[in-house]
Predict the structure.
Amino acid sequence: MGIKVVKFGGSSLADANQFKKVASIIKSDEKRRFVVPSAPGKRFSDDIKVTDMLYKCCELAGSGVDFTNDFQMIKDRYNGIIADLGIDMSLDEEFDAIVKELKARPSKDFAASRGEYLNGKVLAKYLGFNFVDAADVIVFDTNGNLLLDETVKAVREKTNGLDNAVIPGFYGRTTEGYIKTFSRGGSDVTGSIIANAVRAEIYENWTDVSGFLVADPRIVERPDVISVITYRELRELAYMGASVLHEDAIFPVRSAGIPINIRNTNAPEDDGTMIVSNDHDFSDEDVKHTITGIAGKKGFSTINIEKAMMNNETGFGMKVLKVLYDNGLSFEHMPSGIDTMSITLSTEKLAPVREKVLAELRKTVEPDHLEVEDGIAILAVVGRRMKNTRGTVARIFAAMAHARINVKLIDQGSSELNVIIGVSEHELPTAISKIYDMFINSEKID
Ligand code: ASP
């Protein structure tokens, strides 16, 4: 029988009621044998995540300030969950040990990791599952880099012969013995590593949304959920700010050919989004539309350079890029014509060196005209099926023309996985919703 590794995010384990949902999801499928929990997250929008409360306690401890009251709030969260679940357990010894350690050595990573550790203890008890401490299986080097091979070996050793286990997310231990966490949201990474190590058939990542949405729900009302997305498409969309999953959670499963399924703890009947290496494994029925997703990002500027006969001047591009390089700037896009070149880059990163860069460009390439245009948004239309579908770009432009939106730049990578367009920032929401209409709503009617 195959194994499913299931990771539950903080909102899925924020209170006893959520714990009950989680338990019924796990118990409904006996393949769900290895469980990776986050720390209790927010129960309502103004609530504070346990991880943040722990960081605060550590900060207070570090400055020698009494943190009894703040730590009491953490105790109350766990004790409340334990009482409401009606389980017979006490975390008092654990609480005392944490306070003692924070007073002796206020390490941020240690403090933050206790959120997952304690939640893992409670969940294991509630489910009747084994508890495997992540500190014993997730191995980091002394610089805090994950040692994947060592980790996989340790996970296999510790889980060998176990029917099930709860392994807390977010942290591990360095080879020197210190607790170390991943960056925020890192329980996703733990789940992915465990899935790799136990050779899971799938990594289910349970959260509070039913998967990746085709577009931002603040812009498009009730957008469709993406049913199947490839890792490459996901990267394009995530880069544009559409995020549900920690970036580092991709590699361990991708390299092992394990799909990720994003699922909703509050709507377990929804299929969610399946993230796969390639879509060969999926039938055409799963493929609903020409495009997979649309995402946009504000905050860009374009440096427009004009010079007659630019195309004849050997090394022109190199000189321009050298100026950027010398000033520590990376760029996003560089569409060019015979006598023009424009470079799109982050306004924020350009700001501190803006005048210097312009002066150096004037000096090194002697342009006829040089200007910077701010307030640009970049929009990516992403889809693996664009490659085999004619007229995609025409449809994007038709949507823009009907909405009277001026397209300031266009870029299509040779992989034909995405089309990037630049528009004025204030037109970004309209641009996204028009493209959504063009590709999703109209294809539904067809
Ligand atoms: N609890 C940690 C955080 O809030 C890690 C996680 O939830 O994945 O960032």
